[in-house]
Amino acid sequence: METKEFKFNEEELKEVEKYISKYPDKKAAVIPVLWMAQRKFRHVPKPMMVYIAELLDQTYSHIYGVVTFYTMFSQKPRGKYHLQVCTNVSCMLREGDKIYQMISQKLDLKNNEATSDGIFSLEEAECMGACSGAPMMAINEDFHENLDITKIDQLIDSLK
């Protein structure tokens, strides 16, 4: 069984130092440093939280509190393509909930699950601030608006 070392490499540590240098207190760098970990590992597991706490001279409980407060962070691995489908009012009125259901069935995923091959993960999201382009979804950090079932089907197939 392969064990993964949850640490940053030399180049990434230089990036951490750049974040730290932007603020008068290391504590302020917590979000960008956690985001680096999230991008690298597709989640922020406990060993990485402990490591980041040491890097930023913080307690584990503070780092854990940030990770569990913000929905942008996950403690379990997300897929290479993390699909967040908005089902809040504007999107729901334009069938965002049906789009979520279709994706859930197509990929055989429930909320906050990842496919066994690690390619896709699915999350039902609250308002993502793109109401004028409803219904919408994000794939990683890219927003896709004015969607319908056909567009979603093609989009997902293009990622396989």
Question: Which structural traits does this protein have?
Answer:
single chain, 160 residues, alpha+beta, Arc Repressor Mutant, subunit A, Glutaredoxin, 5-stranded mixed beta sheet, 7 helices, 45% helix, 12% strand
Q: Quick gist of this model?
A:
This protein has 160 residues and is an alpha+beta fold. 45% of the residues lie in helices and 12% in strands. A five-stranded mixed beta sheet has the order 2-3-1-4-5, with helices on one face.
Description:
This protein is of the alpha+beta class and 160 residues long. It has two domains: 10-69, Orthogonal Bundle (Arc Repressor Mutant, subunit A); 81-159, Glutaredoxin (3-Layer(aba) Sandwich). It is 45% helix and 12% strand. It is built from seven helices and five strands. It has a five-stranded mixed beta sheet with strand order 2-3-1-4-5, covered by helices on one side. Helix 3 (46-55) crosses helix 4. The protein is elongated. The two termini are 27 Å apart. The model has no long low-confidence stretch (mean pLDDT 93).
Contiguous helical run count: 7
What is the CATH fold-level name of the largest domain?
Glutaredoxin
Give the averaged pLDDT, no decimals: 93
Q: At the first level of CATH, what is the class of the largest domain?
A: Alpha Beta
* Biggest sheet details: 5 strands, mixed
Beta-strand content bin: 5-15%
Terminal CA distance? 27 Å
The level of helicity is 40-55%
- Give unreliable regions as ranges: none
Strand order of the largest sheet: 2-3-1-4-5
Provide the structure class.
Answer: alpha+beta
